[in-house]
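Extended Data, record Transport permease protein
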Amino acid sequence: MRFFSDVRLTYARAFRAVLREPSWIIIGLIQPLFYLYLFGPLLDNGGVTRDLPAGTSSWDFFVPGLLVQLVLFNSAFNGFALLSEMRAGVLERLSVTPISRLALLLGRAGRDATLVVIQGAILVGLAIPLGLHLHSGFAVAALLLLALAVALSCLGYGLALVLRSEDALAPVLQGVTLPVMLLSGIFLPLTFAPAWLDNTAEAIPLRHTTDAVRALMLGSGSYWIGIVVTVALAVVLVTFGARRFNNTEDLRIT
């Protein structure tokens, strides 16, 4: 019970920072909204819908990918805020308290996942008038995105503790997230890609998560592989982040 109390306290502290600056909720939505309104209409008359079930639109294909992109960029890049706390000595002071190190990580990751849920709900609400249809699998898709948000937040925090510098963290994240995004089929179906590109994308876990979220929101298609891959990825990345938080030397910048 003490562990859950520690997670709750860490979560509440992290979320208070959001309440002090709620504008960050909208700031994190700016890029997805550009894609929604300026890129999405280009797919309306294209060939994206040719393989979709009857009665669905290009928005039913496109918006799930946008939600994955939202999670990717609004979770993995949160390590920059952690570096600021390290530089201010906040994490070093917390490390000598009885609070669980895993709780320090999960409380922050839970805050990040909550923000993604709020932003995702706004994005979906804006997409419905454009032609997005919601199916019964939407709730499961939301849980899958929640697990992905926690996993990627733990990755971002773990990398921040390893690299210990914004100058090192920025190029690493940019160098990883861009190819991962392109190989995940977020914007266009990988069935359009040549065989070598499609086969390469099979090795990207986020491709399977995207396929699962899309299948659940479309109400058609296979999603079990994506669920298993996402859960496995979450276990690996949470473990990685937890190990970094368990190292006291990682929690200070000297």
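Summary. The mean pLDDT is 87.
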